[in-house]
Amino acid sequence: LNSELANGRLAMMAVMGMFFQDGLTGSAWGDWALYTDSPLRAFEGELGVQAPLGFWDPLGLSADGDLYSFKRRRSVEIKHGRICMLATMGYITPEVAGKFPGYLSPSSKLLFADVPNGLAAISKVPFLGWSQILAYAAFCEIS
User: Fold this and answer.
1) Which of 48, 65, 73, 74 could form a disulfide with 42 if both were Cys (CB 3.0 to 4.6 A apart)?
2) What are the residues facing 105 on neighbouring strands?
3) What are the E-state strand segments in 61-124?
4) Are 43 and 49 in contact (CB under 8 A)?
5) pTM for the whole thing?
């Protein structure tokens, strides 16, 4: 689970980097060792805390120390990390392995090969195709 958290976080960053091409850069607030009395250290011993940052919560969402909220946010982080890992592979795979043969939408005479990679695909996929994708995502979210 620890490696899944790390990979999920990496995938979240990778997807954002792919979308913005320049990646995400920035710096921490300063030397984390100086924040010894910080309420952000309430979960310093939890699974997923990794060097050199330790428990990283830049927005202070866990500042209240509520364990239930922390566990809920952690499960959401794992879920979103998994989604981002799939999105990263979905972004890379057509570039490396190629695309499916045949039609994506026979009624529109749209071939899989005609759909560009990345964000440019949004305007090419028909509305009903996006509806199916969103309906499936909703089904997965509800079940």
Assistant:
1) 65
2) 110
3) 103-105, 110-111
4) yes
5) 0.54
